[in-house]
Here is the input.
Amino acid sequence: MRPRLPLRLALATAIVSALTGVAEAHAFLDHAAPAVGSTTPPPPELTLWFTEEVESAFSGVTVTNAAGDRVDAGKIAIDPRDPQELHLALKNLPPGVYEVQWHVVSVDTHRTEGKFSFTVAPGGSNA
Here is the structure.
């Protein structure tokens, strides 16, 4: 009976490792530019970095002003050099608070979503 113990231990370790890998496969927001909660001059675009590669066909981002009007260009683009990085062009943003809502599907089909805001400070332009 004793020789089976190392085999069982190896099998248990393999199962735990496999399950841990699956749990980490979700694409969560790592950071953004403009940064979450920041005050910034008007940015020409929004960039989001995720913890996993994302599928652009099943992902989306919207940026709205205080009135709820969209102020983004509508189409996200994945950075060709980094499939964890999304870009979204923005319209010329006057001073105010803006809300970003995002949902992404990672390449292994897990969906995550979230939202955050940033503030555009008076006295700048992104022309």
